[in-house]
Each structure stands twice: as structure tokens, then as C-alpha cells.
């Protein structure tokens, strides 16, 4: 049959005609659903997936807004704004997410980094609520593995009042990171702007200093989790390779900040990178490795749940998030 305007109108009229049979039952209209309003919290921020036999749970700790001006030290603001616009992000400030990981190996829990605790931005500090919503309790954590000593990775270990959050956990840190940040001479010689970071490290680790285990690179920190040197962001910054059966996950820590900027432009330097040249070399090496091996990756500062793959794209790379799955 040839479709014409007349046949379309005729079929529409037929579809609109009332059907025979009894009248539909009359019901009382439901009350309109109220608008929840700006600032309403989302559902709990946790997401599970498997790496071989290991269950991985990403736990979100909210986000912080960082002014865009001055954030990338070796690019013009207009270039950074263009990258943000291309990623459909605001061009005035960067929303930086915080995502930790929980590894569950037959009931043994390992936490990789701890979030901001009660010392972050007002839009962060969601970690404990999300951790508990995922079915965990801090007393169940057997090990806490720290990638580096910036506050958004370590402050969740200890509350402002000094309370230790994970009373039964062994705390493990990179030996090179410990040597740098716990050096009193370095702290005394540091610029005034950095002294607070040194003091924050001492606040968190000072009470447990004698019990903190320091690990070396290329060693298995806990079963299946191997430390990989990734210096530049900080002197002892560490990423990890998680392996189980045929499953592998590169846990990239702060190799990049937001992927829209630093995966696409790996030679850009974030204001947080302590050794910009070394950080750029590390970033290119690890992103190239992830792309070449088609490995699944997890980024601390990518949009939640922060896991996916890295693909080569011109002179840079692009982050391809995993397909969300309703089942683990």
C-alpha cells in the first residue's frame, strides 16, 4: 500500500476511535508527585563489579568544585574552557569527584584510599553513608591501602576529633611517600602553602606511626593487588594492578584528574602535580599501557563510578565508561 497523507490521517482516526465493551472504571486521581527540589540527595553512591573472583565496590565521596582558572598550569584558560565545553561541562569550575574502592576477597575487605572524611568540601563527606549503604561496616575492614598522602585520600582514616575510623585495619602506605611526607627537614623547608599538607599527614598517621606498614613497588600488597610506581603527582604516588583469574583492573589513582581534561590532553599539568614533567611522563606511559592492553581502569576523580577503558585518540586518549549493569 502506498502511504499518503490521507491513509495516515485515516489510520490515526481509527486508532483514536473508542473501543467497544464496558466503560473503564473510574478512579480517584492520585495526588501530584512533589518536586524534590535542588539539593536533594541522590540514591546511595556505590557500584559493584567483578574482577575475576574479586568483588569490587566503588564508593563515592561526593565532589568538590575547583575554579578553572589556574587549574592547568601549562595551557591557556581558553584552551581549558574549550575542552570543558566539548565535554559538556561548565567553563568556570571543574566538578572533581572522589571515588574509593573496596575489594572483597571471600569476606576479607581491603579499602583503597579513604576519601575526605569530615574535612572536605561541603559537597563531599558522603563516603561513610554510602559505605554503610553498600552493606559494609568500618569494623569489617581488614586493610587500608593508601596510594598517596593528599588529604582527599587519607583524611577518611581519622576524624577531626582524632577517632580512628577503621579500628581493625592494617594501614599500608608507599615507602617513598612516607619517606617524603614524614621528613621533618622537608616540612621545615617547605613553602608556607605546603606546610598544611605535611601537618595533615602527621595528624592522620602520627598516632599509629609505629604500626603503619610501608610497601615497596612491584610487590603484592594484598593478594592479587600489586603496587606500580607512578611518581610525579607526588613523590611516592602509586597505582595498582588488580588481578584475579582472567580479570585485570588498573587502578590509576591520581594519574589523571578529570578525564575530560587529562586523558584527552595527557601533556597538560594539573596544579596538584608536584613534579609536572614526571607526572606527564607517568601519565602517558600508563594511559598508553591501558589502551594497548585494552585493560579496564578505575580513576579516583572520574565521574562515578569511575571505571571504564582508555582508547587512543589522536595525540591523546579518551575515557570510555563501562556500560552500567544492574547485576554484579
Brief description of this entry?
With 328 residues, this protein is α/β, with parallel strands linked by helices. The protein is built from nine helices and 14 strands. The longest helix has 18 residues.
What does this structure look like?
The chain is α/β, with parallel strands linked by helices. The protein has a single domain (43-321), classed as Ribonuclease Z/Hydroxyacylglutathione hydrolase-like (Metallo-beta-lactamase, Chain A, 4-Layer Sandwich). It has helices at residues 5-16, 77-86, 127-133, 151-154, 175-181, 184-189, 192-205, 259-262, 276-293; strands spanning 46-51, 54-67, 93-105, 108-112, 141-145, 170-174, 213-215, 220-222, 225-229, 238-244, 247-251, 296-298, 307-313, 316-321. Strand 12 (296-298) and strand 13 form a beta hairpin. The longest helix has 18 residues, at 276-293.
Quote the beta fraction. 25-35%
Helices, by number, come to: 9
CATH architecture: 4-Layer Sandwich
The CATH topology name reads: Metallo-beta-lactamase, Chain A
Form type:
globular
Helix content, binned percent = 25-40%
CA(first)-CA(last) distance? 49 Å
CATH superfamily: Ribonuclease Z/Hydroxyacylglutathione hydrolase-like
Number of domains: 1
Family: Belongs to the metallo-beta-lactamase superfamily.
Domain Metallo-beta-lactamase: 96-301
Keywords: Hydrolase, Metal-binding, Signal, Zinc
Protein name: MBL fold metallo-hydrolase
Amino acid at each position: 500500500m502506498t502511504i499518503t497523507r490521507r491513509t495516515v490521517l485515516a489510520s490515526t482516526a481509527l486508532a483514536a476511535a473508542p473501543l467497544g465493551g464496558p466503560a473503564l472504571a473510574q478512579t480517584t486521581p492520585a495526588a501530584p508527585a512533589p518536586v524534590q527540589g535542588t539539593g536533594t540527595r541522590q540514591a546511595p553512591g556505590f557500584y559493584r563489579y567483578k574482577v575475576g573472583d574479586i568483588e569490587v565496590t566503588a564508593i563515592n565521596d561526593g565532589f568538590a568544585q575547583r575554579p578553572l582558572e589556574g587549574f592547568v598550569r601549562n595551557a591557556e584558560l581558553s584552551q581549558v574552557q574549550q575542552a570543558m565545553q566539548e565535554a559538556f561541562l561548565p567553563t568556570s569550575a571543574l566538578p572533581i569527584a572522589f571515588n574509593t574502592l573496596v575489594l572483597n576477597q571471600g569476606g576479607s575487605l581491603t579499602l583503597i584510599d579513604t576519601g575526605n572524611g569530615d574535612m572536605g568540601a561541603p559537597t563531599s563527606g558522603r563516603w561513610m553513608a554510602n559505605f554503610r549503604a553498600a552493606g559494609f561496616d568500618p569494623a569489617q575492614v581488614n586493610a587500608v591501602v593508601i596510594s598517596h598522602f593528599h588529604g582527599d585520600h587519607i583524611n577518611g582514616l581519622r576524624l577531626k576529633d582524632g577517632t580512628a575510623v577503621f579500628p581493625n585495619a592494617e594501614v599500608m602506605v608507599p615507602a617513598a611517600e612516607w619517606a617524603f611526607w614524614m621528613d621533618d627537614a622537608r616540612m621545615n623547608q617547605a613553602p608556607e602553602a605546603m606546610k598544611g599538607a605535611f601537618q595533615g599527614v602527621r595528624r592522620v598517621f602520627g598516632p599509629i606511626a609505629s604500626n603503619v606498614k610501608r610497601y615497596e613497588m612491584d610487590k603484592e600488597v594484598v593478594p592479587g593487588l600489586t603496587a606500580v610506581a607512578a611518581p610525579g603527582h607526588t613523590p611516592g604516588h602509586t597505582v595498582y594492578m588488580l588481578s584475579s583469574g582472567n580479570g585485570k583492573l588498573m587502578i590509576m589513582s591520581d594519574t589523571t584528574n578529570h578525564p575530560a581534561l587529562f586523558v584527552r590532553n595527557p601533556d597538560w599539568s594539573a596544579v596538584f602535580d608536584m613534579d609536572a614533567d614526571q607526572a606527564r611522563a607517568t601519565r602517558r606511559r600508563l594511559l598508553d599501557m591501558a589502551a594497548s592492553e585494552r585493560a579496564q581502569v578505575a580513576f579516583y576523580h572520574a565521574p562515578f563510578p569511575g571505571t571504564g577503558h582508555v582508547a587512543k585518540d589522536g595525540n591523546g586518549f579518551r575515557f570510555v565508561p563501562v556500560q552500567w549493569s544492574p547485576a554484579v
